[in-house]
Design a protein that fits this description.
With 275 residues, the protein is α/β, with parallel strands linked by helices. The chain contains nine helices and twelve strands.
Length: 275
């Protein structure tokens, strides 16, 4: 189980700074936390964009068990959202990281923080916001398990202190309460658009915990992408979860199935999962 967490934000990121400022009120005395054996977090502010690996002090990061990136989210539609996703690139790396490489990801932690985010959004009666997973995308590339939690999608939302508080409270309670659950089924997802409509409900309400998600826009999806997502999942992956309707044409679906079966990887459709 993770004990030492690092919450990382960029000084150039208004949402990240908003979250970090709100989170600072929940920080325990590190000496008292250590004596009590409680999980704890530190806050690390970087000068440049957090998605750029070269912005980060790896020596500092390597002192921690898990990294939570607090960040803004941008979208062309400027849709109001709070989102969670693992970082990495299955193809080109236009926004940090390296092509074809993803960060270590914990399916169990991703599930817990996503459930906690939904819980907080309900508790604080946050309306007209999409609470969503995103597919694996952008940098940085680090060797520690990590996740992004983001406020989207315009400056109006990034600087909103209420939203910063909701994310901060989500992080604080996740750090304090997260425990590994060996009875969860572990999966990586393949298919669908950027905001994972077929995976959101599964992560929120089923017994399945999802680590990385490979979007359909990465097609043609190949064996290297699938193997990278499985290899970089901390827990043993039980199966690959396919958004069947989100895998494009029949030929694309059958090619993905062939790759999985040729590599002796179990798979299920999202429609097979009980919510």
């Amino acid at each position: 189980m993770f004990k030492k967490y690092l919450v990382l934000a960029s000084k150039k990121d208004k949402a990240g700074m908003n979250i970090a400022n709100q989170l600072s009120q929940f920080k325990d005395n590190p000496v008292l936390s250590s004596w009590a054996g409680k999980p704890s977090f530190d806050i690390y502010l970087v000068e440049d964009e957090a998605i750029l690996t070269e912005s980060l002090n790896m020596e500092k990061i390597n002192q921690y068990d898990f990294v939570i990136f607090a960040s803004r989210h941008k979208s062309e539609k400027q849709e109001k959202s709070l989102s969670v996703h693992s970082p990495g690139n299955f193809r080109k790396a236009d926004y940090g990281g390296m092509p074809g490489k993803v960060c270590p990801s914990s399916a169990l932690f991703n599930k817990f923080i996503f459930q906690k985010l939904n819980e907080q959004a309900t508790k604080f009666e946050l309306k007209d916001f999409k609470i969503t997973l995103e597919v694996t995308h952008h940098g940085p590339l680090i060797n520690k398990p990590c996740v992004f939690i983001e406020i989207g999608s315009s400056e109006t939302e990034w600087i909103n202190r209420r939203l910063g508080f909701i994310i901060a409270k989500t992080i604080q309670e996740t750090v304090e309460e997260f425990q590994e659950n060996k009875y969860k089924e572990i999966a990586v997802g393949i298919g669908g658009p950027h905001y994972c409509p077929s995976f959101n409900n599964i992560q929120l309400k089923s017994n399945v915990a999802i680590a990385h998600v490979i979007a359909e826009y990465n097609s043609p999806i190949n064996a290297e992408m699938i193997q990278e997502s499985i290899k970089k999942t901390l827990e043993d992956v039980d199966f690959v979860l396919l958004d069947w309707k989100g895998l494009g044409k029949s030929e694309q679906r059958q090619e993905v199935v062939k790759i999985l079966e040729d590599n002796y990887i179990q798979w299920k459709k999202t429609s097979d999962i009980t919510r």
